Structures are given as C-alpha cells and as structure tokens.
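Lay summary. Proteins are chains of building blocks that fold into shapes, and those shapes determine what they do. In this project we predict the shape from the chain. Here is one chain we studied, written as its sequence of building blocks.
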Amino acid sequence: MNNLCFQNRYELFIRECRKMTNQYNNEVIFSVLQCDENFQRQELANTINQISEFYDLEYTGNADYIHIPNFNTVFENYLRYPILVAYQIKNGQINILGITTIKNYYNIDNINPYYPIKNSYYYEITGLIAKKNSPIKGIGKHLNEVATIAIREHQKLFPKTELVYVADCRNYRSVNAAKYGSSYVRELDNSSTHVRLIGYYTVIDANNNLLEAPTFVLKFETTKDIPTKQDITFNYQISDNMFQDMEIEIRTKLTKYGIKEPIRTIDEGTGIVNFYELEDKSINIDDIKIITNQTDLGNDRVSNKILTKKVVNI
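And here is the predicted shape, written in a compact code that computers can read:
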C-alpha cells in the first residue's frame, strides 16, 4: 500500500471520531491517539503506561479470550497501528473510557499465521474494551462503529482491502459485536453488508494438543446476494479434552461446507497454527448461535494491580 493509502486511513478514522464526539456533544472525545493533542501534551511513556494499566484493570473476563497488552505491546502498537480512544478530561486529567487498536496486515513477505491468505491486505479490529461500571454507556459499541465505518469508507477507495474479525469459538460477545457491526452498516448506507464465517484456526503444541480453544475467522463483506437463512448452533460441553471436543463440534457442523486442508504455520513463542478455510463461505454470522454450557467460565483473570494490592495487604 502506498503513502496515500496510509494518510487516507488516518484521515478517515479522525473524521469518524469527530462525528462521534459531536454525537456526545463533546462530553466524550473520540480520537486517534497518535494524533490527539491532549495525549501529546504528556510524556509518551505516561500515555503508554496509562493504556496498559487501563487494559489490565478493566479486562476481567475470560482469560482465554484476550492477551492483555503490556507496556511493550502497547508501545509497539502505538508505533505501527491507529489506536482509537474515547475519553473525558476531568480536573485536568485524561480519563480513558474505551480503546481499540486497528491492525492492518499485508500478506506478501510476512504472512500472518492466523489469516494466511497470500497477497491479502486487511484490517482487524482488536483489543476493543470499555471501562466497567461507567455511567456513560455505549462507548465500546461506538468505537466499533467508528472503526467499521472508517474501514468501510477506505474499502470504497481501495476495494481490495478486507475487514477480518477473529473470535474465540465460545466468545459470543465478540461474535455478537461482529453481528452488530454488519447490521449497523446495513442500516447506515442501505447496503447488503454481512459478516461471513470463512474458517477457523487452532493453536497446537508439538504433540498436536490444542493450547487454546479454536478461533473463528470472520470476514466483513458487501455483496449483491442476500444470504440464504441457515441455522447453525455450536453446542460445547465441559470435558477433560474440552478444546479438542470443541474442534470436533465445529468440524461436525462445518463439514458440509467443505473444510480445506490446513495452512500450517509456526508462530514463534506461541505454537503451531493451523488455519482451516471453508470451501463454501455462505454462512452468515447472524445465523450462528453459540451455547457455551459454562465452558467459558472458570478462568476469569484478576488484574495485576489487584494482585499487587493483595500482596501488600498481607
């Protein structure tokens, strides 16, 4: 992608952030972090630390669903990708209400193992999180709107650009967010926009044991064809080999759509990644139902801040 593409990308995110700020009557500011004067007035190290602490304190859900970004990860993201943030200023201090990182990949030389389609240029909305127990509602939803619409506008200028979502197979909240994103765009511009299930990936060790639950790979598409209604339910059960049993459930439900041979890649420090692409990509995310049967419970994380306080109290 050329420099015009990257410049245009930031401008689109900034434009949509301004629109959302206006919707909140400037009581909440939506912006691209790297271009925000309020954040630029403070030391960069303070900004990066503030964001990493926000993730640590505000994310208390299932520990398998997200790798909490530490200081180094946030700093790397800051240098490479647009970071969208929603915040207020109170008593001269920035109070973050929500944040997400918009990652972009170009699969030519460095193939992303989790979506290893060659020569594809795509966006992924990652790490979307909003402040718990905030009196201001809808921050996460509106950050998703800003990102989705900006990328949608970018696709009009660069049609080959794709928007890909990934979601742990049990994480119905992320799947529902993808559903909402597509329905929002459909209503906004009266288009036939949908999110399709295009495959899934697994991460295994050298002995072929799954290291985490299978992850759905979804793609945001605009087509002239109205998707055929299909009802697909993924019903998981707690077991000694839970991750393997989840994959069996997924393969059982998806076999008739044609599961290609896996594209196998090694992600250094994580494991062996097998990406399974579907031959038939007609499954609309709106038609998917997930029954977790409590397979998503039992490993909720506790923030490092809270752990530190407990140690001090002892």
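What the prediction tells us: Confidence is low (pLDDT under 50) at residues 1-5, 307-314.
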